[in-house]
Design goal:
Radius of gyration: 61 Å
Shape: rod-shaped
Distance between the termini: 210 Å
Structural class: mainly alpha
Strand content: under 5%
Largest sheet: none
Helix content: over 70%
Number of strands: 0
Length: 143
Amino acid sequence: MKISILTITVVTAAALAAFGQEGALEDVKHGAEKAGQTVKNGVETAGKKTKEAAQTVGQKTKETAQTVGHKTRETAETVGHKTKETAQTVGRKTKETAETVGEKTKESAKTVHRKSKEALNKAETSDQQSTNHAPNTPAPTDR
């Protein structure tokens, strides 16, 4: 009986050892599965976050492009309006200057004409006076 008890004890011990190792392998396998699932979940989360970030960047880029386009259009309209105003002002000032120069030229021409006429009249009067005077020297028959 001692041999059978010893045999049962050895078989039981071997069985327990085998079950113990199998339990340890199951624990390792279960731990590996949990680690794999955690990594998978982390990669999925990172993928979702990357996709969300890309969508946000895309939306912000679109909004910025629209804002820049709007501001560019407003600036172009303002520049066009200011250019038109400047052109009108330059045209008006040029016209005023031309009118002023025309008036001054007309006044100068009148003044020159009047002074020329006065000089001509003086010259004619001077010529008439010199032909109407008797010479100061006695004539040869008067002696």
